[in-house]
Amino acid sequence: MIKKHHNKWLLIIAGIIVTLIISPVYAASDNWVDRVPAVSRNFDFEENPGIVPRLTIEEYAIGDFQSGEIVRLQLQNAEWGNIDRLRTEVEIREVESVTINQLTSEVLELVLNPTEGRGEKASIRIPLYSKTTQAGLATVTVDPFGGAVSGGTYPFAEVVGSNGDEGVQVSLTTPGNEQLQLQMEDVVNQQRGAYLVLTEQVPNGIPASGLTFRVELQNAEWLPASRSDLNTNRMKEATIIEGASQVKVENVRRVSHQVIEVALTREGFSAEAATIKLPLYLQATAIGDLGVRVSLLQDGRQSVRLNLGEVVQVEEATPEIPEEPSVPIEPTQKEVVFRVGQMGYWVNGVPTTSDVAPYVKDVGGGSGRIMVPVSFAARATGAQQVDWDPVSRRVTVIKGEKTVELTIGDAALRVNGLIAMMDTPAEIQPVGDGTTGRTMIPVAHLAKALDVQYTWDQITLSATFFVEE
Known about the structure:
- By secondary structure, the chain is mostly beta strands.
- About 10% of the residues lie in helices and about 45% in strands.
- The chain contains 5 helices and 39 strands.
- A hairpin with a 4-residue loop joins strand 20 (about 245-255) and strand 21.
- The longest helix has 21 residues, at about 1-20.
- The model is unreliable at about 1-5, about 10-25 and about 160-165 (pLDDT under 50).
- InterPro entries: Cu_amine_oxidase-like_N (IPR012854), Mao_N_sf (IPR036582).
- Pfam families: Cu_amine_oxidN1.
- It comes from Anoxynatronum sibiricum.
């Protein structure tokens, strides 16, 4: 009896071994999509068959697919289109038949019947005739039902929103989200903390082919390239990107005084949406709303106007000059007098020649500023050195331990590196035949920068500097 039972167990074990040897071992199939085009929202691949992506499902080894293999294909950010056309254009190899049924607008069910005794791998190639519905990445998910087909999700289109609300949302942010209030010539820089915010509404909303935004100002100008501290290169360098690290700012280009173009790209796919914060470096130029209009160049219909604040007029007298010196003039002081409209100037009553006359510059609102030549006024009030750089159009004045720098067309006055804003920029006044000129700035700001007291006589239109000997 013991021996008989022993033989029985040997037969059972041998049967199990034989079963393991002859039973097929199913490997995963190879699945892939042949292309991932960048398209717009509501894009219909049936109307554009030349770029329709195709999904291939191929058995890993000959004989892996069994008769009646069931596979479901589910779309995300897209819906199936013309199934009859899909049925006629599906490509099969070593497959006797394939049945395709539509379960929902996003789901198809396929039943595969491979060829018996085939000599090549069985495969099916399916055109993804569909219509995109949402911005982001359109994908097809292969969902097997216990057969040899492997599951997975495969991108087949990058969808860019066409109406501005699915792809990238545009907004502005300021400290405390409060509207900016600027005066004429005020500069918005890092300290003011104004940002243009571009936010992907879904991951990969910015396609690998890139997006370019046109940003146009109202009542303000972008700072020129000569402002190396606040130009478009600085804006690009100071941009903050949160979320998807694959998104990059490729370029920020100044097209005109009011317009820049911001080019964004993406390198690879991401599971996170990106937020791009671009600092806004600009200067107020006119009274009114400080508007920002953002347009997507890839779609001229997508445009939004945002309000950053307003530029206001400051009421002031004509001309409003700093108060007269409160200290008495000592006998050791030298008097230097410049008169509006008169060539030359007077030092302690002695006339000295110059080739340009001071004048009153209208700054709007019934106000004016007395403009004097930097070179003559600085040297007359004790400056040891006045230099002109024709490349950068910059004047440098050195007086004792003070270094004063100003640039033509710029209202920023730098004193030992610290910036003070003038209410009108430095400018060139032509002299002689007009081929040369003199740099002119407001007398009040020059006097303050050089620590020189002065008075203004409204009757004689004279500005008198008092210089310590």
